[in-house]
Amino acid sequence: MTEKYENFLDFVFYQIYPRSFKDSNNDGMGDLRGITEKIPYLLELGVNAVWLSPHYKSPGKDGGYDISDYRAVQEEFGTLEDFREMLDAMHANGIKLIVDFVPNHTSTEHYWFQEARKSKDNPYRDFYIWADKPLNDWVACCESAWKYDDVAGQYYLHCFDPTQADLNWENPRVREEMKNVLDFWIDLGVDGFRCDVIDMISKDWENNRMNKGPHLHEYIRELFGREKCKNIFTVGECWGANVENIRNLTGENRGELTTVFQFEHINRNCRSRFEPKNFSLSEFREVFAKWQKITQENDLIYTLFIENHDQGRCVSRFADDGALRYESATMFATMLYCMRGIPFIYQGQEIGVTNSYFDKIEDFDDMETTSFYRAYKDVLDKDDLWNLINFGTRDNARHPMPWNGETAGGFNEGAKTWLPLYPEYRKINVEADKQSEISVFRYFKSLLGLRRQSEALRRGIFEDITGEAKTHFLYRREYDGEEIVVLCNFEKETEISLPEGCVRLLGNYPEHENNVFAPYEAAIYKKLKR
Ligand code: GLC
Ligand code: CA
Q: Does the pLDDT of residue 241 top 90, yes or no?
């Protein structure tokens, strides 16, 4: 790994979903000025990079992932000037900013689509994928991925909501336009991109697959293999990626991506978004240890995340969001952010926000949820329906950020919010958490502080030393003579023997002499040299 690549391991990202972070003008919608206001909070937590979910002009059918103008800021979020101000303020405070880049589809309100549908010889027609009848049986949002457009007189492909039309990347003009979009934001000063479902830009028609088509690498190299992108950071969302894909997508000399998000761990407790599956925490250990080994052996960069704007809250989904909420939240943080790779924290995760429960469809916004509801409301038993929805809904991650226990949780001054407030905001919020004797935020802060000080935690080799046990995860990191041991106990009290010479640096329970570890206990040790 070159030094440039190794330096990426110093990043600690915080993901902001702009609609829900902070509403500075009390119109019910989060905005860019709200983000700027909260920069001191990010500094206090100890992150040095931000991933901003889409801030572009959009009708908002898919929370902004349906872009109608790649160069404009969503009006409700502010102006390009506000964006510049936010970016400058981040840079002035040593925070890098990567923005979302959504290359696979545009909103049907985008000018290109509005033109394309007009006629077969419109210059934009080939920007999208048209057919006289569906070319396959692909399904999107519980219906056919092909929708007939009256104006166009043909079907178009949409791998997500019908208002998100897939772009035709086989058309060189589309690729040219997308390069220009990247350059626009690079010229403005952003430090990189999170690339939305990037493995879908090349469809595999032959094998009947929406992603990983034959031109994927070529297209990505065309975007990012350029001189202009030499110093930017890119992370691609790749649902279907296996080892070989990832090696090719992120190998340092490939000119493609810096790293990817892959979802093997997240997918362990569900068959699909609304279909939970039996799961045990030892599967996390298995998946993480496997990917640590692969990325280490291949000199690749791994992403360390457990939440984002599409996933339920980790304490609710994988552990205990009641009595042991603090322990669960801090155990996951320890497990993840002491491994080798780049930490990503999703807003609210740092105070242990939990999943919510709603049973009226009006209280949801996520289009995957509303389409699931439409498809199953008359099929499933009521309780089952709402349990599945509340398990899978992406809105779990999208309720306004609870800053305090007062009006609107401090998100705004009381104007009706675009999505209901987080129901637990009076109890679980930044202010209350910070004042608590057991504060998730403080633990995150100490953990990130440790990571900053320890080369072993950032750059060291990883080794799983758990042995056969399924009750916990024990691993070590080592760099230049510095050795760190990390222990994460799963849900039951367990007797665990640590390697000799371990001195505790941080833990989520009081330190104890014996080697009996409590449910979700986590601790980090420095190993003394013999
Ligand atoms: C990605 C985004 C998700 C969005 C989808 C379509 O998976 O994370 O929020 O709905 O792509 O753009
Ligand atoms: Ca606002």
A: no
